Amino acid sequence: MEESIEHSALSKAGEAAASSKTTVDRPQTNGETSGWTPSSWTTKPIKQDVVYDDRKAVAKALAKLERSPPIVTPTEICKLKKSLEDVALGKAFLLQGGDCAELFDYCEASMIESKIKLLLQMSLVLIYGAHKPVVRIARMAGQFAKPRSSPTEQHNGKTIHAFRGDNINGYDPDERTPDPSRLVSAYFHSAATSNYLRASLASGIADLHSPLDWGLGHVKETGIKAKYERIIDSITESLRFMRTVGADSASSGLETVDLYTSHEGLLLEYEQSLTRRLKTPAAQRTGPVATETVNSPERESTVSDDGKEWYNTSAHFIWIGDRTRALNGAHIEYFRGIANPIGVKVGPSMAPDELVSLLNILNPHLETGKITLITRYGEHKIASILPAHIRAVQRSPHHGTVIWQCDPMHGNTFSTAQGIKTRNFSSILSELSSALSTHRENDSFLGGVHLELTGEAVTECVGGSEGLKDVDLSTNYTSYCDPRLNEKQALELAFLVAESLRGR
Question: In this predicted structure, what is the pLDDT of residue 32?
Answer without folding.
Answer: 38
